[in-house]
C-alpha cells in the first residue's frame, strides 16, 4: 500500500523522525495504527449506543433537551 502525503505533512514527518531518532516509516505506521484503533473504538461505542436505542434500553433525548441538561449541570457545578 502506498500513502501519499502533502509536501508540508511529509516535511513535518521527517522533522519529527530526526528529532526522535525513529524512522519516518515507523512513525507513520504508529500514527496510522493509533488512528485505526481509535476509529474502531468509536465505531464500537456508536454501534453499542445504537443497539441500546434500538432495543429500548435507553430513550433518545431531543437535542434541545440535552443542551438544557448540560447547561444546568454546568451552572450547578459553578455555583
Number of individual domains:
1
Q: In DSSP terms, counting alpha (H) and pi (I) runs of 4 or more, how many helices?
A: 3
Tell me the Rg in angstroms. Answer: 21 Å
Give the helix/strand class: mainly alpha
Largest sheet: none
What fraction strand? under 5%
**Oligomerization:** single chain
Helical residue percent? over 70%
Distance between the termini: 55 Å
Shape: elongated
Task: Compute the number of strand runs.
Answer: 0
Report the mean per-residue pLDDT as an integer: 95
Uncertain segments are: none
What is this structure, in a nutshell?
This protein has 79 residues and is mainly alpha-helical.
Written description of the protein model:
- The chain has 79 residues and is mainly α.
- It has one domain (7-78).
- The chain has helices at residues 7-20, 24-55, 63-78.
- It is elongated and about 50 Å long.
Q: Which helices and strands, and how do they pair?
A:
Blueprint: H1 7-20, H2 24-55, H3 63-78
Descriptors for this entry?
mainly alpha; elongated
